[in-house]
From TrEMBL:
Protein name: Cytochrome P450
Keyword Metal-binding: yes
UniProt cross-references to PANTHER family, sorted A to Z: CYTOCHROME P450 26, LANOSTEROL 14-ALPHA DEMETHYLASE
Regions crossing the membrane: none
Named cofactor requirement(s): heme
Keyword Aminoacyl-tRNA synthetase tagged: no
Family: Belongs to the cytochrome P450 family.
Organism annotation: Nocardioides deserti
Alphabetic keyword roster: Heme, Iron, Metal-binding, Monooxygenase, Oxidoreductase
SUPFAM superfamilies given in the database record: Cytochrome P450
InterPro entries: Cyt_P450, Cyt_P450_E_grp-I, Cyt_P450_sf
């Protein structure tokens, strides 16, 4: 069976199933298979990961099929570029993130989530849509887009639906494309207004700076604006799993509620990223031949980065299938050992929003650790991509339950 079909059938366990079907030992770092009908090499060992992120050895352009790439990233986006064009546009986008400062964004996340949590006592609440709203309102305000709460929630929901559809999960895929088409129309006009100073936001706001820095038409600038906003909203999938893990570990919940335990919250966030990565694989194309772990790589072969295998590799992680946040308290993972958002150097194809993801999760944990909730149903469907606990993780909060405010500690400044 083609690995693409295994991904549809097995989801996050697809590569493990593919390895078993080919008779490859579970500890093998590299094996050959087929992806979308073409020869592919799945890499998990450090030499394989290094090859995947070597820009002289691998390229991304045209590798992800348009029905997926255009849904999640948009047509003409940074993610399908290579070489100098990729570096130049990524530098412009990273500069906007850096100049905008992450501190105000993270502080706004804590404020929005703390306000939402104040309404939870005596109710059942679905965590995931709550996080989509809180993160969406926060990142849109940080970008300088002056939207009322209802409009901000609509934009956040539309961007989250693009993310939810990327795994070809039936109705979610259709909703994702409907929201992609909606966003492209909305963002094209927004980019034009921002460039012309008609959007009612300051010229130094991150959204305005970004669209001016993109040397392309309004449609492409709008696509890249979405690629700045959407990743913050996508952290809601990780935030939902963080909420589930907190419910499982009451000792850690008590510890993380302490305002002085920021490092512990960061360690907990890293373990959430390791154990429940957003996607099971990434793909590229080999531009030169090589031999990795005895497996021949030919020019033109697809390369598949086994994210689940790397982040659960017993050669890298002790008891890899156990949730142990303490492993990150005194250990900084290597650039090729923890890859839930890619590996290698951030100047390459590693996600530039990794530090933001960690800080948003830290702020989320600080709020949720102070809320005495119970999980209604912890079941997770690992065949669906991306996945969350059932119904977005429904939690129950007793009426009159005391809680610690998420505003007890400042997340700091950029």
């Amino acid at each position: 069976m083609d690995l693409s079909l295994r991904l549809l059938r097995h989801g996050y366990d697809a590569v493990a199933a593919d390895r078993a079907a080919h008779g490859v030992p579970p500890d093998a770092g590299t094996h050959a298979t087929r992806l979308v009908g073409r020869r592919a090499v799945v890499v998990r060992s450090e030499p394989g990961v290094r090859f995947f992120y070597d820009e002289s050895a691998a390229e991304r352009k045209g590798v992800v099929p348009p029905p997926l790439a255009w849904l999640l990233f948009g047509r003409g986006a940074l993610h399908g570029m290579d070489g100098d064009p990729h570096r130049d546009r990524k530098r412009a986008m990273v500069d906007v993130l850096s100049a905008g400062g992450l501190g105000p964004l993270v502080a706004r996340v804590a404020e929005e989530l703390d306000g939402a949590a104040a309404t939870w006592p005596g109710r059942e609440v679905s965590v995931h849509p709550t996080l989509v709203s809180a993160y969406g309102r926060a990142v849109l305000a940080w970008a300088g887009l002056d939207l009322d709460d209802d409009r901000a929630d609509t934009v956040a929901r539309r961007l989250s639906q693009q993310v939810d559809g990327f795994g070809f999960a039936g109705p979610a895929y259709v909703r994702g494309w409907a929201s992609r088409l909606w966003w492209d129309r909305y963002a094209t006009g927004l980019a034009a207004d921002l460039r012309a100073g008609r959007a009612g936001t300051g010229a130094d706001a991150p959204a305005a700076r970004l669209v001016r820095s993109i040397d392309a038409d309004d449609r492409t600038a709008g696509v890249e604006l979405g690629n700045i906003l959407r990743p913050t909203i996508a952290v809601s999938w990780l935030g939902t799993f963080a909420a589930l893990r907190l419910a499982d570990l009451p000792v850690w919940r008590e510890r993380l509620a302490d305002p002085g335990e920021e490092l512990a919250r960061m360690a907990f966030a890293q373990e959430v990223r390791r154990t429940t990565p957003f996607a099971p694989v990434l793909a590229a194309r080999a531009t030169r031949p090589a031999t990795i772990d005895g497996v021949r790589v030919r020019r033109g072969d697809r390369l598949v980065l086994d994210i689940m295998g790397i982040d659960h590799d017993p050669a890298r992680w002790e008891a890899p299938h156990e949730f142990r946040p303490e492993r990150f308290l005194d250990h900084a993972p290597g650039a090729f050992d923890l890859v839930p958002q890619g590996g290698g150097h951030p100047a390459g194809h590693r996600c530039p929003g990794e530090s933001l993801t960690l800080r948003v999760l830290e702020a989320t944990l600080r709020v949720l650790a102070g809320v005495p909730y119970e999980v209604a149903d912890p079941a997770v469907d690992l065949t669906r991509m991306p996945t969350t606990p059932r119904d977005g993780l429904v939690v129950r909060v007793p009426a009159g339950a005391p809680r610690r405010s998420g505003r007890a500690s400042s997340p700091g400044s950029a």
